[in-house]
Amino acid sequence: MPVPLLSIVASMMKIFSTYLDQYKGLERLKKGTEDDINNHLLFSLIWSIGGILEEESRKKFSKYIKEMISGKNIVKKYNLEPENEWEPRSFIFKL
Fold it and tell me: Which of 7, 24, 26, 88 sits in a 20 to 30 Å window from 78, CA-based?
């Protein structure tokens, strides 16, 4: 059953915002907090999208996410070339 894109984004943001509550009111973030926030974002992405996929699509999504996390060049492999030039950033996720 198709799910509207906006519903997927809203689901992801609801999951992510529950993790961000612990950082409200802090004037400074502790060392390692940025990594924690990145991990919370990744978790939210995986569950909001992966949770609605059917079995075969979950396998493909899992493979894609693992490649993305590993830092492999997924831009060309998945034809994600942008129309404008951009500098790629890599993130290190500690799972």
Answer: 7
